[in-house]
Amino acid sequence: MNFEHFERGYLLPKGCKDLIDVINLQAKPQAKIFSKPGAAPPKQVSSIKGELLVSDSTTVKQLAALLGQKPFEIVADAMALGIFANVNQPLGFGVICKISAKYGYTAKRRTLLAWA
To answer: Using an 8 Å Cβ cutoff, are 110 and 55 in contact?
Structure first.
C-alpha cells in the first residue's frame, strides 16, 4: 500500500524539498532562479570587428597577435573545441574561423590574389 499522501512533500512543487523552498520560489522572479547571486550577466556576442586574412600555416602565436589576445587564451579556445595545440603549432582553417568568430572577426583564407 503506497499512498501518495504518506510520502514527504507530495503537495510541494517539483524541485522543492520543504516549505522554505516554496516560499523562496514564490519570492524570487522566475528568471533569476538559475543565476548565482552576484554573478555577472552573460556575455553578449560581439559584433563583427573586421576580417582576418590567414594562411594555411597560421600558428597559435600568429593568430593571437592578429586577434590582439594572449596566446594562452587562443590555446584555451582551441582546447574548448577539442584541439590540443601548443603556441608554435599551425591551426586548421575551420578552427581559426571558430576562434576568430568568438572575438568578433571573420576569417578569410589568404590566396595568391590577396597578395596583389
So the answer is: yes
Joined grid coordinates for residue 96:
581559426
Q: Is pLDDT above 90 for 48?
A: no
DSSP string, 8-30: TTTTSPTT--SHHHHHHHHHS-G
Cα(20)–Cα(40) distance, rounded to whole angstroms?
27
Each residue's pLDDT tens digit, 91-113: 999 999 999 999 999 999 987 66
Of 6, 114, 112, 9, nearest in space to 51 by CA = 114
Give φ, ψ of 5 to 5 degrees.
-75, -10
Q: Which three cell numbers stand for residue 66?
A: 592578429
pTM comes to: 0.56
